[in-house]
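go over this:
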Amino acid sequence: MAKTSVDIDSDALHRAAEILGTRTLRDTIDAALHEVLDANSRLDLVRLLSEEGRFDFGAAEIGWGGMD
């Protein structure tokens, strides 16, 4: 784990802490970094599913009991 010193926008920090439900600076920064990584993973999944012919949404709907 890296230890560093940086200047942080305190208003942005407090707003992020409220959104993330964190209490400490370290927890807020860690949670924000994980949110970025999770968001990127979700985008990768959307890109994968949006490739032509990659996923048959109709078949998935039928599999879950819809569109008889």
User: Anything to note?
Assistant: The chain has a mean pLDDT of 89. Residues 25-49 form the longest helix (25 residues). DSSP finds three helices and no strands in the chain. Helices lie at 10-20, 25-49, 57-63.
